[in-house]
Amino acid sequence: MGLALRLATRGKGRTSPNPMVGAVVVSGGRIVGRAYHRKAGEPHAEVLALHQAGPRARGATLYLTLEPCCHHAKRTPPCVPLLIAAQLRRVVVAMKDPNPSVHGRGLQALRRAGISVSVGCLEEEATALNRIYCHWVTTGRPWVILKAGMTLDGKIATARGESQWITSPEARREAHRLRGEVDAILVGVGTVQADDPKLTVRVPRRAGMTDMVRPWQPLRVIADSNLTIPSTAAVLSRRSLAKTLIATTTKAPLRRVRNLRNAGIEVLPLEPQQGRVPMGNLLRELGRRGIASLLVEGGGTLNAALWKEGLVNEVRLFVSPLLLGGQDAKSVIGGASPARLADAVKLQGLRVRQVGSDFLVQGLVPPQSTSRRH
């Protein structure tokens, strides 16, 4: 199962909204088939592993990181009939699929066919591997990663909004790698106006050469309550490989809505909450579209809106050895702070590592903290 989990990680950033899955077929104490789910829409891991094993799959044991699917509401056929047809003796599954269309049904079908089924081998590791998928199928919302580059005293920009560049080139390359693993990136219109970001995944070619834009790009989502985005913004360029969705409110001027749509930009009007784009409704709409993971690269106002509604699941903060000081410099999470230390959120699964001259602090927001803030 350890090998199956390692294989599964090779699909990171390409299987969404499907989970990452690895499969290993063992016969007579030897591995006769191994595979992983490479990309959404392509054959699943167990199908590829059984194809590799061929006739040797008969009477063999299949190690699978996730319960095999048994429904037709997807682009590929269900896997359970193929497992039964292969005449496997035993199937060892790390975890049940939390998808209500599957949850336990695939295992029951295998048992009814006379196949021995074991569940729970390295379950904790398998659950951690697919926490994004599990969150998406159970809540209908994407897993939200709040990412920022900040000083040691928690500032993401000066009082005038200058932020380029707080972090090192190595940290910025790591941020591009992270962009390549998510389905969408969210910023507020204030970030677009201040920095004019491209919000694309770019990797350096060689020293002295310009960056290369990857052909696959996450969706760019701009929260813009009144459609004040400049027409010259980089995220509106038709030359980009990345698509842009502007989330606005039903109070936005219709003329601006028409102009953007005529320019080929998708505009999503939502009923406003306190005059702003409702974050919860926006996330549910993104989840409905198959967006399972969302990277937030906005300013303190957007970060605060998501944080206070309990919509942030993970933080990744690049901390630079700089001090700005002052109460007027921009903080990672804006707005009013809680009155008591007891209301502070303690991150779980904390990891810290050095990236260039900076440190990346990564942690999970506890579910109980999320529900309390919501």
UniProtKB/TrEMBL annotation:
PROSITE patterns per record: CYT_DCMP_DEAMINASES_2
Alphabetical list of InterPro entries matching this protein: CMP_dCMP_dom, Cytidine_deaminase-like, DHFR-like_dom_sf, Eubact_RibD, RibD_C, RibDG_C, Riboflavin_Biosynth_HTPR
Pathway(s) of this molecule: Cofactor biosynthesis; riboflavin biosynthesis; 5-amino-6-(D-ribitylamino)uracil from GTP: step 3/4; Cofactor biosynthesis; riboflavin biosynthesis; 5-amino-6-(D-ribitylamino)uracil from GTP: step 2/4
Cofactor: binding comment: Binds 1 zinc ion.
Pfam family, one: dCMP_cyt_deam_1
Domain called CMP/dCMP-type deaminase: residue spans: 1-118
Active site: E46 (proton donor)
Annotated binding of Zn(2+), by residue: H44, C69, C79
Organism: Nitrospira tepida
Reactions the enzyme catalyzes: 5-amino-6-(5-phospho-D-ribitylamino)uracil + NADP(+) = 5-amino-6-(5-phospho-D-ribosylamino)uracil + NADPH + H(+); 2,5-diamino-6-hydroxy-4-(5-phosphoribosylamino)-pyrimidine + H2O + H(+) = 5-amino-6-(5-phospho-D-ribosylamino)uracil + NH4(+)
Domain of life: Bacteria
Function text: Converts 2,5-diamino-6-(ribosylamino)-4(3h)-pyrimidinone 5'-phosphate into 5-amino-6-(ribosylamino)-2,4(1h,3h)-pyrimidinedione 5'-phosphate.
Binding positions for substrate per the UniProt entry: S163, R179, R202, E297
Protein name according to UniProt: Riboflavin biosynthesis protein RibD
Keywords: Hydrolase, Metal-binding, Multifunctional enzyme, NADP, Oxidoreductase, Riboflavin biosynthesis, Zinc
Essential cofactor(s): Zn(2+)
Enzyme Commission designation: 3.5.4.26, 1.1.1.193
Residues annotated to bind NADP(+): G149, W165, T191, D195, L199, S225, G299, G300, T301, L302, N303, A304, A305
Gene Ontology molecular function: 5-amino-6-(5-phosphoribosylamino)uracil reductase activity; diaminohydroxyphosphoribosylaminopyrimidine deaminase activity; metal ion binding; NADP binding
Biological processes annotated in GO: riboflavin biosynthetic process
Similarity remark: In the N-terminal section; belongs to the cytidine and deoxycytidylate deaminase family. In the C-terminal section; belongs to the HTP reductase family.
NCBIfam families: eubact_ribD (TIGR00326), ribD_Cterm (TIGR00227)
